[in-house]
Give the backbone structure.
Amino acid sequence: MKFATKAIHAGIEPDPSTGAVMTPIFQTSTYAQQGIGKHKGYEYSRTHNPTRTVLQNNLAALENAKHGLCFSSGMGAIDTIIKLLNPGDEVVATNDLYGGTYRIFTKIFERYGIKCHFTPIQEPAAIEKFINSNTKMVWIETPTNPMLNIIDIEGVCKIAKKYQIKVVVDNTFATPYLQNPLDLGADIVTHSVTKYLGGHSDLVMGALVVNDDDLAEQLAFIQNSCGATPGPQDCFLALRGIKTLHLRMDAHCKNGEIIAHFLRNHPAIDKVYWPGFADHPNHHIAAQQMRGFGGMMSFTLRENRLENAMKIVENVKLFQLAESLGGVESLIGHPATMTHASIPKEEREKSGIVDSLIRLSVGIEDAEDLTEDLRNALGFL
Ligand SMILES: *Cc1c(COP(=O)(O)O)cnc(C)c1O
């Protein structure tokens, strides 16, 4: 089955009891049993819920995976994956990780004896100098937030395999429409469904997918034991959002390309970070492992001044100043004071997050209206 068909049909059958074409919202915590040990596969909704089962199977199909699990947030999925580890285990992760992932490693799991090494992974070989006999996991994101760095998934997996280390890929930015890390050798793929998969900024959810049966069983055990499962209403919204994922992603990519070129040609702008540019440092890898370059980008101003960046994010009218990304509507953000404010200035500037850096999540509005909005907002420079 091709992607567009899977988005709409994979794992989804008309409801057997009524024929309802759309998956019903099974708003129930518990299920009648026909006798001790006799039930229809559902006992309690933390463990299994029919709306969630359909979503999990649909997401697994989109990532060419055997198993999918959903969570009440992206961080719920990430928490579950890290709980595969034991005290004394070590992780190697990319240094420009999503802020929440950096926080859970350093502020939560370090206290439980799990050590995470953070390093730039422009070249896969960069992970090798942090690998020792305790290393059990490599954690990458690609493209990264907010610098849109690209990591060679296949290259990282090849090195990790040599040492029998599991590779986790946070595929939130690319979505399964643009990139399938399991096909490139990854062991676990995680998503913030809150972003492109949901796509309408109306829910918070996470997911993970795997191929390995034992790994799936361990993760489902942690999911049920720790309990960060989503409600059926949110599962319904995610299923509804996913039905248009391919159309939305095509529109994000198209608008992304137009806006990236507009910004690059604007005299007030210094650098534009977008993996679709031929001179992006890892463009060739993006072109190999992705089917499009997406609508996420960041840019800096020739005059690198905080007050100029502040003025731009206040001047725009269509772009909303907000956290998050991946919805149909365009959003603008200022990493240095928003998502990355907790990182000391010196540290964040090392990875390129300077005071004038602005991040865009380009939506699917008319591209001319979006460029006009940015042109007006930049007009004072
Ligand atoms: C938002 C995000 C998360 C966390 O997901 P939540 O749904 O907010 O818990 C993890 N990784 C990336 C790349 C994200 O953008």
In short: The chain has 13 helices and twelve strands.
